[in-house]
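Re: the 200-residue chain
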Amino acid sequence: MADQARTVRNKQVILVSYPKDWVIEDNLRIEETDIHLSLKPGCGHVLLQTLWASVDPYLRWRMQESKEGLYAQPFQLGKPIVVRAVSKVIASDHQEIHVGEFVAGPISLGEYALVEGGQGLWKVDPNLAPLSYYLGLLGAPGLTAWAGLNLIGEPKPGDEFFVSAAAGAVGLVVGQLAKLKGCRVVGSVGSDDKILCSPI
């Protein structure tokens, strides 16, 4: 539990309208509300302070009213958008998650976030890697790259290996992993500017 009960102001990013094309400033607003930095015993919840948040392209596809073609629920108007983040535990009534630990997982985008039942959170270790790595190389993009390469692609040294979206979060990693396996790697990107972003 938190050492003392106190209240702070919490800024959150709220979806106020569904974008028609590109996301624009009018689709979102910053909302500031009070949040109590303590939890009721027995609730099982975890209260987090956001340290790093990942703003990924898939968030745009959840900013629509229709569920068609979505693998996750669309965001609700008037509610915070949900992102992957690395956070510090500042209060906990969860048996396996403790104050002072660091966790990664989906949260409502804000300075602080309450995660009911600690759902979707996993512990991360700042002594093993910088905390931001758990959103990229050691997070979903890195795992996707590793699994796609080793469990599906299974390339051998000397193979030709093509990476589409080579400047994206997954493409950046999988191209380098394929190089380490001795493959000749070719990547494609969407613009000349993105060529500078890709290490392939």
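DSSP finds four helices and nine strands in the chain.
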